[in-house]
Amino acid sequence: MTDAHTLPAHTTLLIGFDSAWTPGNRGAIVAVLARDDGSLLELGVPRGVNFAEATAAIRAWQAELQPDATIVLLDQPTIVNNETGQRPVEHLVCSPVSARLGGMQPANRSRVEMFGDAAPVWPFLDSFGGAADPLGSAGCSGVFETYPVLAIIALGWLIPHTRARGRLPKYNPQRRETFSRDDWRDLCAQVSGALARHGLPELAAWSERARTIEAPRKHDQDALDACLCLLVALHLARGGECLMVGDLASGYIVVPHGDVLYAELEARCRDTGREPAQWLRRITARRARQALAARERGCTVAPRASGSPPAPGGHAMPFEAPMGSP
After folding, report:
1. How far apart are CA 3 and CA 15, in angstroms?
2. What separation, in Å, do the N-terminal and C-terminal C-alpha atoms of the chain show?
3. For position 112, what pLDDT does the model report?
């Protein structure tokens, strides 16, 4: 066990959670502790979890490590107010996804197991500060929605194709008719390299081992997606520029900023009659010590009616939009 008393004063628990989505399913979770001096503490390889197990794992890490902030990057919508159809963010994002031969499922309240009043995502969000406001000025902990597929596009981890933009890797082993082991290996190598560059040898080695799996299964993909979520958290927390697509009223997605992706989404906004400045924002993390200052000032979670989705603007590490950004 790690002796929490030996840790530096300012720390942030960074978590990637490829969520279970429904009560009966399992996803995967992985975490690291980011110290204020820039170093990272690995907390093990990805593990399979349901929502209750994910909550317990995060609580255990918090109890042991006593972080000043906990930031969760979750692969599941965190703000869903529409009864049917797509959220506006999905209407925007589906364009670059489909242009690379991918697909995106809509999130709406009629999908009761995922987003109804009793869906497990809402108490999970309540447990960790709610759906975070990436543009908020203060807070302690929060959950940010991300989307591994969009992160792959932003990072340029695409497969060469006759389409100039390339195509998304086909790495879901449950889709046997389209799954490509070559794509699986390529994505695992990209993830392994990125984790190594962040100074995470254990996780990089795990991803390299995953690359050699002859017949990956769904739990292997869940673990890889959890690592992709973690990479977004690392990019955000360590000062990288990120892109917030969407808004706090109808839902948003946070991924690393990419010039090509930004240009496509800007064009998509105009094509759909939306003002890009209202739907696309570049964000960066402020210094981790500001999260501690916010914690010392005290954080409260706004009450909400039982069974309803949490309001945005929960409590997360502070973020700011760079000068001159949309």
Report:
1. 20
2. 45
3. 95
**What is the 3-state secondary structure of 131-154?**
EECCCCCCCCEEEEECCHHHHHHH
Taking CA 38 as the corner, what is the angle to CA 27 and CA 292, rounded to the nearest 5 degrees? Answer: 80
Q: How many CB atoms lie within 10 A of CB 267?
A: 13
Residue for token digits 């109804």?
116
3-state secondary structure of 324: coil
Q: Chunked in runs of 10, what are the mean pLDDT values of the chain (326 residues)?
A: 49 94 92 94 98 97 96 97 97 97 95 95 93 68 94 97 93 95 98 98 98 96 98 92 96 97 98 98 64 45 38 41 37
Read off the tokens for 289: 């010590």
303 token code pair = 């009450």
Q: What is the pTM of this model?
A: 0.86
Contact 14, 238 (CB under 8 A): no
DSSP for 16-39, written as a single string: EEE---STT--EEEEEEEEETTS-
Domain ranges within the chain, ordered by starting residue? 4-301+312-320
Helix (H, G, I), strand (E, B) or coil at 247: strand
Contact 19, 121 (CB under 8 A): yes
Residue 170's nearest CA partner among 100, 230, 274 is 100
Encoding tokens for residue 104?
Answer: 């995106």
